[in-house]
Amino acid sequence: VSPTTSPAKQNGMVVEVAGPVVIQYKDKKNREKDKKMKNDCYCWICHHTGKMLCCEKCTRVFHIKCVPLNEEPDDDWICPCCAHQEQCTKLGDKSKCCRTNLARMLPFALDRMASSGTEAFQQPVTKEVAPNYSDFVHYPMDMQTLRDRARAGVWTCTQHFLDEARWILHNCIIFNGGKSRLTALARTVYNVCQHEMLEINLCPDCFLNACIADKDWFIKPCKKTHRLVWAKLRGFPYWPAKVLQKQMQQIDVRFFGQKERAWIHESNTLDISEEPPAGNRNKESGSNRVASEDEMNKYVENLKKVGRWPIDMSKVVEEREEEEEDNKSVASTDNANRKKKKDKAPVKEISKAPKLKISSNSLLKDERVNNAFKFEDAELKVSSTAKPDRVPQHSEKRKKYRL
After folding, report:
1. I need a surface site. Which of 37, 185, 199, 233 has the fewest CB within 10 A?
2. Residue 384 near residue 327, CB atoms below 8 Å
3. Alpha-carbon distance 163 to 97, whole Å?
């Protein structure tokens, strides 16, 4: 089908040919509005065509069953990505995923995303490489574009950056298919991005100081005060550690000394004020623990200098509860405002797109998927009201995350 510059009327409806799909509009007003928005033709969740629900604030489209919704909404509808962005704007500095110095941290995250074998996603796809790329891909995205926008300070929210980075995976699935090796590589890149954004949300100061590679970064006080505990791993004595997060009865800790990470059951931790029971330790582990305790004591001394020792845990719990209440009130206000609107959300009628046959020179040649990073392909939950769906299945097995 060849694109046309002027619309035509068929059966009383304005029809415009846009690349490989045909979009039907109920009237000229909706056509002009959608033309300015330039909505995508493929569902943001399942990456297929069909009857789409269009977001009023961005170019993403969704199947009603993929959102999921039981029926088509009667009022103006915004997608979950834009809803989260609105919520962060209202909460401001209270939002868990908004960072004022995010522009300094994103280049380090992009460096980890640009691992070996990701050359196909590091620069924009040109017409010389893929002449028909623009016929299928509505919103091109690459890591160089992300890097340029990060330096310009476009993003202050980690979830907003993650949604933009997801376009790389979305576009690759549309153009190369879901089972392509290049798509597997794009999924790995997105998973690395998820992990980096989670690390930034846990503690921006720890993330930035570790990336700068300051030798004393671990004993510098962060804006977020970490609880100190004695943590017990199987086969090791009780070890001093910082608490990064808690989910159900599992605690994510980073140990003093080697800066290693592990999920520990709450029953295997003691408050730092308590004396840990003496365990079996050899000469090597004993000397390493003494060095770790010395590092912890330096961290405590630095906390005392800024007046943050001893840690007031009641104040920390109170701040978390206030943050959850703010998020709930913003969500309820958004739902109430949307019910007042009477305009019906625009829906696209999109015909089935032709199956694309990938030629050997349609994109850069596939590279072997880099096995250096493999994380769970799960959606990033950055809302302070979000609760873990399940307890992390790491038990007491040590997992290392070295920055």
Report:
1. 37
2. yes
3. 13
Rounded CA-CA distance 241/261 in Å is: 9
CB-neighbour burial class of residue 30 (10 A; exposed 0-12, middle 13-18, buried 19+): middle
Query: Could you give the 3-state DSSP secondary structure of residue 386?
Result: coil
pTM of the model: 0.69
Contact 126, 101 (CB under 8 A): no
Task: Please state whether 386 falls in left (phi above 0), alpha (psi between -120 and 50) or beta.
Answer: beta
C-alpha to C-alpha distance for 101 and 80, rounded to whole angstroms: 25
Residue 9's beta-bridge partner residues? 14
Write down the mean pLDDT value for the chain: 74
Backbone angles phi, psi at 293, to 5 degrees: -65, -35
User: Measured between alpha carbons, how far is 143 from 124 in angstroms, rounded to an integer?
Assistant: 8
pLDDT value, residue 223: 85
Q: Residue length, the chain?
A: 403
- Separation between Cα atoms, residue 252 and residue 241, nearest integer Å: 10
Residue 318: pLDDT band by 50, 70, 90 thresholds?
low
Rounded CA separation 106/227 (Å): 26
- CB neighbourhood size of 295 (10 A): 18
Q: Kindly give, in sequence order, each residue whose CB lies less than 8 Å from that of residue 19, ignoring residues fewer than 6 positions away.
A: 3, 41, 134, 135, 136
Torsion from C-alpha of 178, 182, 185, 189, nearest 10 degrees? -90
| Tens digits of residue pLDDT in 271-316 | 888 777 665 455 556 678 889 999 999 999 999 888 888 776 665 5
pLDDT confidence band for 392 (50 / 70 / 90): very low
Q: What is the pLDDT of residue 327?
A: 46
Residue 25 tokens, joined: 């509009």
User: Which residue's entry shows tokens 């009383």?
Assistant: 12
Are 261 and 254 spatial neighbours (Cβ–Cβ below 8 Å)?
A: yes
pLDDT tens digit sequence for 101-139: 899 999 999 999 998 889 999 999 999 999 999 999 989
Dihedral sign, Cα of residue 273, residue 279, residue 284, residue 285: negative
Residue with tokens 């206030």: 322
Cα distances (angstroms) measured from residue 112 to each of 134, 191, 196: 28, 11, 8
CB crowding 317-342: b at 16 or more within 10 Å, else e: eeeeeebeebbeebeeeeeeeeeeee
